[in-house]
Amino acid sequence: MTDGVAFLERMLSIPSPSGQEDALATYLAEQMAALGFQSHRDEVGNVIGAVGDPGARRKIVLLGHMDTVPGLVPVRREGNRLYGRGAVDAKGPLAAFVLAAARVASRRKGAQVVVIGAVEEEIHGRGAHHLAETMAAPDCVIIGEPSDWQGITIGYKGMLSVTYRLVRPTSHSAGQETSPAQKAVAFWNRLAALAEALNGGQSPRFHSLDPALREIQTYKDGLQERVEMAIGLRLPPGSDVPALQRQMRSWCNGAELAFPYSEPPFQAEKNTHLVRAMLRAIRGRGGRPRFKLKSGTSDMNVVGPAWGCPIVAYGPGDSTLDHTPEEHVEIDEFGRGTEVLVEALKLLIA
């Protein structure tokens, strides 16, 4: 795995926050071409590399993403650990996809493996939405997200973003007027209480409605005072989003309420040829496979319902390190995850 680790290390050394993936995309396309892929970039900047039979009816898509959240994590090796922004989310899984696909490239005619490095997954999945609209449904899809090498992710919660803005003439703090900041806090408290009531205090996390107050800011200029608040809602399966939006609008009390982005929750089927191949591959490497349901979102939420084919998310790495200052992947874990992907692809194209 020495060359594979060096490949990942180089990917980590190229910063690629959402919207700034060009340098990494150039490097990735070059490396894919050197490994025998037919590679190009599409209209929105996704890197697409294909190996195998170009006329094949069976296409296996490995969909990762090139972008990361902001924040510099110095790239370094410390013992068995490789640190860097994206080591887990999700350059590690994407690097494993490229390496695994290259190793099975010429095994058989009649199948093609397509590896995609998508853009802007971290800010509403621009690359995945383009693929869902323009690419025909493949035979099956593996999404590149950390699951640890023995885990298979089959579901992600949905997401609804909420913005709240209220502007009022400035009033004296000793008066009877309720300030915009107080009204915003009251709105948040009602939403938190609703989530607690719906969850009943007993629901597993995947089946709970989870609101998070992302940001709140207040402003005064002597004539007006205003408050702006950003909230993220993690949605469980079965969420009635229109009803939830109507409920929040009934509480806004003159504020401007908007819902700039949403993704529905998605859960994949377990009884598919893709899942069976992943289970066999993990067991074949001595692992004990387990299914996972995630409380975040991924490109599975976008392409899963659009393509309607067997789908899982898989990749080396500990997802609790996503977006953190300590983001790193165990080098042994990266190797095992890559080997699992090689074995799964062999089974899928046999």
CATH fourth-tier homologous superfamily of the largest domain: Zn peptidases
CATH class label of the largest domain: Alpha Beta
Number of helices: 9
> What share of residues are in beta strands?
25-35%
Task: Provide the number of structural domains.
Answer: 2
CATH architecture of the largest domain: 3-Layer(aba) Sandwich
* Mean pLDDT, all residues: 94
Order of helices and strands: HHEEEEEHEHEEEHEEHEEHEHEEH
Low-pLDDT ranges: none
From the spread of the alpha carbons, the general shape counts as elongated
Largest sheet: 6 strands, mixed
**Class by alpha and beta content:** alpha/beta
Give the N-to-C terminal Cα separation: 25 Å
CATH-defined fold name of the largest domain: Aminopeptidase
Secondary structure topology:
Layout: H1 2-12, H2 22-34, E1 38-41, E2 47-52, E3 58-65, E4 76-78, E5 81-83, H3 91-103, E6 111-118, H4 126-134, E7 140-144, E8 151-156, E9 158-169, H5 180-199, E10 210-220, E11 224-235, H6 241-251, E12 256-263, E13 266-267, H7 273-284, E14 290-294, H8 300-307, E15 311-314, E16 328-330, H9 331-349
Parallel strand pairs: 3-6, 3-7, 7-15, 8-14
Antiparallel strand pairs: 1-2, 2-6, 4-5, 5-16, 8-13, 9-11, 9-12, 10-11
Could you explain how this protein is built, in words?
With 350 residues, this protein is of the alpha/beta class. The protein has 2 domains: 240 residues, Aminopeptidase (3-Layer(aba) Sandwich), CATH 3.40.630; 106 residues, Alpha-Beta Plaits (2-Layer Sandwich). It contains 9 helices and 16 strands. It has a 6-stranded mixed beta sheet with strand order 1-2-6-3-7-15, with helices on both faces. Strands 10-11-9-12 form a 4-stranded antiparallel beta sheet, with helices on one face. A 3-stranded antiparallel beta sheet has the order 4-5-16. Strand 4 and strand 5 form a beta hairpin. Helix 4 packs parallel to helix 8 and helix 7 crosses helix 9. The model has no long low-confidence stretch (mean pLDDT 94).
